[in-house]
Write a structure and sequence with these properties.
236 residues, alpha/beta, Rossmann fold, seven-stranded parallel β-sheet, 44% helix, globular
Length: 236
């Protein structure tokens, strides 16, 4: 029987790449994202594995919406083996001196609180089964602050790293493991939100979403006796 994964941010970038990689390994995948049309585009890219992908439009920054999404996913799939938190955002005006409260809240809500809500929504199910894998897509900004990322993004990513460690500290004895992946620059649509988006030449030197997806699948496919708490991946 195929295993089931829930992937947030599945409409583009790293989330999409992970969802497609899992479908390629015969997983059933619940695609979660804010816009249904981008999730449907991911399904189209799954080719012959389209039937293994299901779309669940959801704003992960809304706890009530996440709870309803989790209810629908579990009603459809019964079991969930893996949760991948890949949803993330930033803002062009990200430096401390120009950061708007609205943008600050959007980053914390999506990048950190959204992951927390999803973890809390699926943890009871994983505890009942005595197993589960949670993968959090962080950033090297979760290791060291930089002006390039901006304070709200950095804060959200440091928090996501802490959430990963907390899951392992509290849930490992119940058979649940978590991994934080810390990528360097990735060529994804999120780059378009930089104050000065990089050109094609710069993007070509960056990681590709498929590189990060390979790290996620490594964590997911490890034997149950092992877990990788952190993976740092950067372009050469």
């Amino acid at each position: 029987m195929s295993k089931t994964a829930v992937v947030t941010g599945a409409g583009s970038g790293v989330g999409q790449a992970i969802a497609l990689a899992l479908a390629g390994e015969n997983w059933r995948v619940a695609l979660v994202g804010r816009r249904l049309e981008t999730l449907e585009a991911t399904v189209q890219r799954a080719g012959p594995r389209q039937s293994q992908c299901s779309c669940f439009a959801c704003d992960v920054g809304n706890p009530a919406a996440v709870a309803e999404m989790a209810r629908r996913v579990l009603a459809a799939f019964v079991e969930v083996d893996t949760l991948v938190n890949a949803a993330g955002t930033n803002a062009p005006r990200r430096a401390l001196e120009v950061l708007a409260l609205e943008d600050y809240r959007a980053m914390i809500d999506t990048n950190l609180s959204g992951a927390y809500y999803c973890v809390q929504a699926f943890l009871p199910h994983m505890r009942a089964r005595g197993r589960g894998t949670i993968v959090n897509i962080v950033s090297d900004a979760g290791k060291s602050a930089s002006p390039k990322a901006g304070p709200a993004y950095v804060m959200s990513k440091f928090g996501l790293a802490g959430l990963t460690q907390s899951i392992n500290a509290e849930e490992r004895a119940r058979g649940i493991r978590a991994c934080a992946i810390f990528p360097g620059d990735i060529d994804t649509p999120l780059l378009d939100k930089r104050p000065q988006p990089p050109d094609a030449e710069a993007r070509a030197r960056m990681l590709q979403p498929e590189d990060v997806a390979a790290c996620a699948l490594l964590c997911i496919n490890l034997p149950p006796r092992a877990f990788a708490e952190e993976i740092v991946i950067r372009p050469r």
